[in-house]
Amino acid sequence: MEFSHVVRRRKMVRNYTTDPVDPAVIDRALENATRAPSAGFSQGWAFLRLDQPDSVGAYWEATADPDFAPDRWLSGMQKAPVLIVPLSCKAAYLNRYAEPDKGWTDRDEARWPMPFWHMDAAMASLLILQTATDEGLGACFFGIPPERVANLKAEFGIPDDHDPIGAITIGHPATGGAQGSTKTRKRRADVVHHNRW
Prior knowledge:
The chain is an alpha+beta fold. The chain has helices at 3-9, 23-33, 53-63, 72-77, 90-96, 116-134, 149-156, and strands spanning 45-50, 82-88, 138-142, 163-164, 167-171. It has seven helices and five strands.
């Protein structure tokens, strides 16, 4: 598929069939993710790949509110056979920029105008979404409730210095499911400013 078609066809899918996904496709998605830009080539990202039913189920148990029955959104998302949790590691960036070729002698977080550790993991996540689209699959990036992150880390043994920036479902799209904001909101046309605001 042409790159411009991948960009235009990519959308967040919120309902899946239970059909399995070729593991080679997930391999490609993760390989592509590791080609994302990375400040100082710090590569402070990691990816938790969940592609077995028990692991996927454990994810939903760790992150879903046990007091509420799954709604339309959650019911559709839980059918995805693959979940990828992208993680960022701030320490990798602070350590990298304290190395001699970067010129800083400390690990002061205040030097960073933006949290590049999260931004780089987000760019890697977009490559996963685009790869899924290129392969004819659906995917959705979504947030993890902050109050459930500790459960997620404990369930899967995620190190303390790695923070999940969200999660990505991947699978074969099904009809129906929760509608996204693109159904009720128009794409803005006033966001590009040429040479001057």
